[in-house]
Automatic annotation (TrEMBL), chain A:
GO molecular function, one term: GTP binding
SUPFAM superfamilies linked: P-loop containing nucleoside triphosphate hydrolases
Family: Belongs to the TRAFAC class TrmE-Era-EngA-EngB-Septin-like GTPase superfamily. Septin GTPase family.
Main location: cytoplasm
Intracellular or extracellular location(s): Cytoplasm, Cytoskeleton
Any one GO BP annotation for this protein: cell division
Entry-linked InterPro entries: G_SEPTIN_dom (IPR030379), P-loop_NTPase (IPR027417), Septin (IPR016491), Septin3 (IPR008114)
GO cellular component: cytoskeleton
Region (Disordered): 1-42, 338-366
All residue ranges annotated as the Septin-type G domain in the record: 63-335
Entry superkingdom: Eukaryota
Lineage summary: Eukaryota, Metazoa, Chordata, Craniata, Vertebrata
Biased composition (Polar residues): 13-22
This protein's name: Septin
From TrEMBL, chain B:
Superkingdom of the organism of origin: Eukaryota
Protein name: Uncharacterized protein
Organism placement in taxonomy: Eukaryota, Metazoa, Chordata, Craniata, Vertebrata
Organism of origin: Larimichthys crocea (Large yellow croaker)
């Protein structure tokens, strides 16, 4: 559902409904001086509250958005190519390196590349976090640990900013919003490594599993494979995005159920264009045909793109912020609380600084109680 | 191999005998005689397939030999795979074509490379190969050598995933552990996910890395200089094509008006036997039609001999340590099992003799009765 608002400049802007629904709407009095407002002066009962949408949109345009995507998977599964395809520009680590050397690193590295992309006046700071070396060694035990650590470090950095006495107006958000996990298209089932990784990480970050290089599976094999994967995810208690428990209302549930029926998306990536039927499309040309990346009869790339960018981007960020990050924060504060209670007895001064956490303990245990703690948090850890 | 040649010479006797034919002895028919005997005896071939699960190994084997060896296979799910270890499973099938019998044994290695920790996951495989060599060594040194069963692995097809940018650490380690025990033929599996450019790049990269790591894969024997040009050209093409990029299929589809083995995609049909689509035909020709015998020869002459030499060396060095007399080698590998089988054979022989005598007696009695 989109709202169309005409501005004075005459350009039409489409707003995505989901963009606005989850954001908290501060209660400002309706501003009748908003330019470009449709004249409803004759409408007796019109107050003008909906003009808030326009104000928010303008503010968001000024501020720009941030999106941090992590890609995880064995070497050669097309991670960099998929990122380039998703954002239709060279955003991957390989495009940035002057002489990309395709060798397998001895240990996992975490490489973060940021780009500023713009479309129709909307600016986005896109950060792609690559994890070369994951799953490539002979012994891959605990190869998920560096990744867990990185994600938690981002939460920690955000937490530190948040609890500062003098906080920045806009805390730079480096938290990983979404982790795309690439499953090799074996056609049989998930491998032990896949299960181990997703089980651990689905608890700290939104995981979107995709079947990589899906042009090696026929449609029948693809459906069987997807079904097997879904069953195995269920059997192992792995909650991938969109998580069932975070559906807000029936409408959301309906949309998300449809998505859940389709995951994992079978994707093919390409950054080369070919001419097919007079159109220039992204694809892969083989001796037996050309695979069109954006053709939903060929692969499900379009669904993935729609999910990640066009419909659920804000939702992904919200869940990261309001659920994963909060879980981390609560755990962290509880840990340090235990640390502090031993100090409180020694330092009476510290008691004033320490924000009365002991009293607010019961509220702090619930994610909802965080709002109350916002004002109280003023001490430095 | 001793052959009792009692064949009557089948040389066509010409009415006019030229001077050259008078000097014709006739042993030029030896190859024919060997051929006839082999056809009667049949051939055997043991092929091992190794690679991660989901690389299309079973499908390729079925496509190569036009059989369905894996009908009743049950695939493990992810949970079961977590505790899976590498197993060795043998499938044997008798194939006959134009009167020639082939006893084909496929040695499968499920579980290889699938675990999170794949340290030394090739050990069960090297142990198996060594066991077969040891078995053959014992048999060869035993007393009854008439019916030695040759279970040695003649060739190992190693499936390299097409998703990588070359060889992975596990590929390198596996091939290095096995290249002196068995003929390794590396293959690029599931090649239908690569464009022609990507295949070329990957093949070049893999060949480079094989050289770099000193891996000795199976080399095609050089052509004889007196072979014709066409054969030489084919041979050259074959050598430049390694590692073969293969695709397998269990299904038959309709393409260009014909029924062919292939895979049906929304964007086109991949034909397994189309040389411009993949190297399956080259692999089949090489493996079965032209080099099967050479693979067996290399296994016998090179890999087995290496093993044997190593084994004997170990034994003699052990002997030297034990300070025992150096006894002639053939006796050494004889251990109690052989002696027991000898006893059994003797017992059975005696039993047979007794039964024969009883039969004779009965026949005599009947004969007397009749009279």
């Amino acid at each position: 559902m989109t709202d169309t608002v005409e501005t004075v400049e005459g350009s039409e802007v489409n707003l995505s409904h989901s963009n606005m629904s989850e954001s908290a709407k501060p209660h400002h009095p309706p501003n009748p001086q908003a330019k470009g407002e449709k004249s409803h002066g004759s409408d007796f009962s019109y107050v003008g509250i909906d003009a808030i949408l326009e104000q928010m949109r303008r503010k968001a345009m000024k501020q720009g958005f941030e999106l941090n995507i992590m890609v995880v998977g064995q070497s050669g599964l097309g991670k960099s190519t998929l990122m380039n395809t998703l954002f239709k520009s060279k955003v991957s680590r390989k495009s940035v390196q002057p002489n990309p050397e395709e060798r397998i690193p001895k240990t996992i590295e975490i490489k973060s590349i940021s780009h500023d992309v713009e479309e129709k006046g909307v600016r986005m700071k896109l950060t792609v976090i690559d994890t070369p070396g994951f799953g490539d060694q002979i012994n891959n035990e605990n190869c998920w640990q560096p990744i867990m650590k990185f994600i938690n470090d981002q939460y920690e950095a955000y937490l530190q900013e948040e609890i500062n006495i003098n906080r920045k107006k806009r805390i730079p958000d480096s938290r990983v919003h979404c982790c795309i996990y690439f499953i090799p298209p074996t056609g049989h089932c998930l491998r032990p490594l896949d299960v181990e990784f997703m089980r651990r990480l689905s608890k700290v970050v939104n995981i979107v599993p995709v079947i990589a290089k899906a042009d090696t599976l026929t449609l029948e094999e693809r459906d069987d494979f997807k079904q097997t994967i879904r069953e195995e995810l269920r059997a192992n208690g792995i909650d991938v995005y969109p998580q069932k428990e975070f559906d807000e209302d029936a409408e959301d549930r309906l949309i998300n159920d449809k998505i859940r029926e389709m995951i994992p998306f079978a994707v093919v990536g390409s950054d080369q264009e070919y001419q097919v039927n007079g159109k220039r499309i992204l694809g892969r040309k083989t001796k037996w045909g050309t695979i069109e990346v954006e053709n939903i009869a060929h692969c499900e790339f379009a669904y993935l793109r729609d999910l990640l960018i066009r419909t659920h981007m804000q939702n992904i960020k919200d869940i990261t912020g309001s659920i994963h990050y909060e879980t981390y924060r609560v755990r962290r504060l509880n840990e340090s609380n235990g640390h502090f209670s031993s100090h409180l007895s020694d330092h009476p001064d510290a008691q004033q600084k320490a924000n009365g956490q002991p009293e607010q303990q019961p509220g702090g245990l619930h994610a909802n109680g965080v709002a109350a703690q916002h004002e109280a948090l003023s001490h430095e850890m | 191999m001793t052959t009792n040649m009692r064949y009557k010479s089948r040389i066509p006797v010409k009415t006019e005998e030229s001077t050259e034919e008078k000097q014709y002895v006739g042993f030029a028919t030896l190859p024919n005689q060997v051929h006839r005997k082999s056809v009667k005896k049949g051939f055997d071939f043991t092929l091992m397939v190794a690679g991660e699960s989901g690389m299309g190994k079973s499908t390729l084997v079925n496509s190569l030999f036009l059989t369905d060896l894996y009908k009743d296979r049950k695939l493990l799910n992810a949970e079961e795979r977590i505790n899976q270890t590498v197993e060795i499973i043998k499938h044997t099938v008798d194939i006959e074509e134009k009167g020639v019998k082939l006893k084909l044994t496929i040695v499968d290695t499920p579980g290889f490379g699938d675990a999170v920790n794949n340290n030394e996951c090739w050990k069960p495989i090297t142990d198996y190969i060594d066991q077969q060599f040891e078995q053959y060594f014992r048999d060869e040194s035993g007393l009854n050598r008439k019916n030695i069963q040759d279970n040695r692995v003649h060739c190992c097809l190693y499936f390299i995933p097409p998703f990588g940018h070359g060889l992975r650490p596990v590929d390198v380690e596996f091939m290095k552990a096995l290249h002196e025990k068995v003929n390794i033929i590396p293959l690029i599996a599931k090649a239908d996910c690569l464009t022609p450019n990507e295949i070329k790049k990957l093949k070049d990269r893999i060949r480079e890395e094989i050289d770099k790591f000193g891996i000795k894969v199976y080399q095609f024997p050089e052509c004889d200089s007196d072979e014709d040009e066409e054969f030489k050209q084919l041979d050259k093409e074959l050598k430049e094509c390694t590692p073969f990029a293969v695709i397998g299929s269990n299904t038959v589809v309709e393409a260009r008006g014909q029924r062919v083995r292939g895979r049906l995609y929304p964007w086109g049909i991949v034909e397994v036997e189309n040389q411009s689509h993949c190297d399956f035909v080259k692999l089949r020709n090489m493996l079965i039609r032209s080099h099967m015998h050479d693979l067996k020869d290399v296994t016998c002459d090179v890999h087995y001999e290496n093993y044997r030499a190593q084994c004997i060396q170990e034994m003699t060095s052990k002997l030297a340590q034990d300070n025992r007399m150096e006894s002639p080698i053939p006796i050494l590998p004889l251990s109690t099992p052989d002696v027991e089988t000898e006893k059994l054979i003797k017992m059975k022989d005696e039993e047979l003799k007794r039964m024969q005598e009883m039969l004779n007696k009965m026949q005599q009695q009947m004969h007397d009765k009749d009279q």
